[in-house]
Amino acid sequence: DTAVSQTPKYLVTQMGNDKSIKCEQNLGHDTMYWYKQDSKKFLKIMFSYNNKELIINETVPNRFSPKSPDKAHLNLHINSLELGDSAVYFCASSQDRLTSGRFGDTQYFGPGTRLTVL
Amino acid sequence: RKEVEQDPGPFNVPEGATVAFNCTYSNSASQSFFWYRQDCRKEPKLLMSVYSSGNEDGRFTAQLNRASQYISLLIRDSKLSDSATYLCVVNLDTGRRALTFGSGTRLQVQP
Known about the structure:
The structure holds two protein chains of two kinds. By secondary structure, chain A is mainly beta. Helix content of chain A is 0%, strand content 53%. Chain A contains no helices and eleven strands. In chain B, the strands form two sheets. In chain B, strands 2, 4, 5, 9, 10 and 11 form a six-stranded mixed beta sheet that branches. The A-B interface holds A 31, 33, 35, 40-45, 48, 50, 55-56, 90, 96, 101-112 and B 31-32, 34, 38, 42-46, 49, 85, 87, 91, 94, 96-101, 103-104.
């Protein structure tokens, strides 16, 4: 059973198109994330949702819009794709330990979506 | 100064060697520390958390030095299967509720 799944695994598209990436977790976690890993392998957080509420929104172009229909799903929609958007996008989830005040603990990652913009 | 900084390597070591990686972080108030492992074209996976007193998991030992703001990972008796990129991960600010990843240190264990 896949804990965090993403679709599609590969996405090749033309500049200017709009595309979506879907993520689902079956771990019962309440927090989900989107990360971007560029060609230099640097992993940067983009968004985080806790119980469907946006809690982190990094400096990301507003062409990127996350949507969380429920706490097991976090989708990423990208408008007007640009060459620089080519990267691997990882979804992740974690269970916030509110009682200990620790957040962003032990994150479980999906397999990634390799986006190539031509 | 980068928020979480690692030597990118690569570290090329023979099987059976002991190898150590260090990582420095910028915020002295950081609360949580981890080492993740990422294989080529795969997702990052938690290797181990790093506790204040240091901790060991088989051949892997993690240490935290709060005074100098660095964490370390020691791998003993390296195996070919240890070849991967090791990511230093820090929760720099619990209020922000996010982990910050270092750029990774690449390890290549050779036969």
